[in-house]
Amino acid sequence: MAVSARPRQAFAIIGALGLALAATACSSDDDSSGNNAGSAECSAYEKYDGHDGKKVSIYASIRDTEADLLEQSWEQFVDCTGIEIDYEGSGEFEAQLQVRVDGGNAPDIAFVPQPGLLARFAEAGKLKPASADTKAMAEQNYSPDWLKYTTVGGQFYGAPLGSNVKSFVWYSPKTFKEKGWEVPTTWDQLIALSDKIAADGTKPWCVGIESGDATGWPATDWIEDLMLRTQTPEVYDQWTTHGIPFNDPKVAEALDRAGTIMKNEKYVNGGFGGVKSIATTSFQEAGTPILENKCALHRQASFYANMWPENTKVAEDGDVFAFYFPAVDEAKGKPVLGGGEFTVAFADRPEVQAVQTYLASGEHANSRAKLGNWVSANNKLDVANVANPIDKLSVQILQDKGTVFRFDGSDLMPGAVGAGTFWKGMIDWINGKDTATVLSTIESSWPK
């Protein structure tokens, strides 16, 4: 799910200054049309030339400071090519995108964070296949694990953009050092550490799944992570596509494994109450008791780095950091759950194809990364350009050849399930409903 981040003004100022200097350097070589084509700084964008004065609209869920940084990331591209990019971010993106498409007012490009929604537009004939240049750029820069999510019916529709790693557990390095606790690298070590913390009189885990109309989604991430850790990636794929029923024993095993933590009164919910408090604790606030030593562990994605209180130092030697959510069976590899956006087009004008290709490039990935607060699975992204420690760790995990990546399962499922009965089922499960009943209810909702 797309989440607005808190401001990182320093990154924004540095990034804006860098782009301003670049624009100034280009200005002496301006062509007669007013853009900077032909300058040394614009050489990387020559392949996108020929569309001066054309406009391309982009619509997405990325808002506020993140939107400002995004627009800064393509300023030099705009300056050098003369293509004007009109960006709009909306908190009602998913619903309004459908309205706009149905009303004949689709944006040229959209950043879609749900492969299931993307597939629905593609199957309805609304999306334009990516150009040969975009496809070639994407294949150079992304692993097949990622590209399959925008390939529908054998047709490729676009490359990933931003990414996030969900397989993280947040903790306090300072507290761990004071208590002599070791960061666990196996599931058994994670449980042993949880038992040790509980025995010392502290609830080891804090969890929150409240998110307004989307309440329940953080719990689905737990189940997806445990599906990847108790089953093979192939079984995970079968589950998200209904190749196996939702109430299959393999899914029940993952849910019950998650329950050994989430429904364990000895383990949760530090700083908030017991198990049932999980359903009413907002996911944004759920990890904050770590800073007060009221809990020690919080499983949440890389984007949670932006949700700590202002002036919280996120680093290996800081107030908080995160470690990889350990595998249950290390022999099955290093499973990583994640999410992100995909750049797809509703128009195929040459200037739209040029922008779509550029957004799949290493130039854009590094331009955006230099502004801070950014993770991408683009293999041309230089980790040295990623300043935030948790973002750097995320990129290293995504670029690790041993990583077995799978996209957020609820975003792959039909909306009625992934953003409907699955979310609601997790609320019911936390509130006491048994595994078999919850899974059977979700199974019965899968579209026939």
Automatic annotation (TrEMBL):
First and last residue of the signal peptide: 1-22
Lineage: superkingdom: Bacteria
Keywords: Signal, Transport
Pfam family, one: SBP_bac_1
UniProt similarity note: Belongs to the bacterial solute-binding protein 1 family.
Protein name, as recorded: Carbohydrate ABC transporter substrate-binding protein, CUT1 family
Source species: Micromonospora pallida
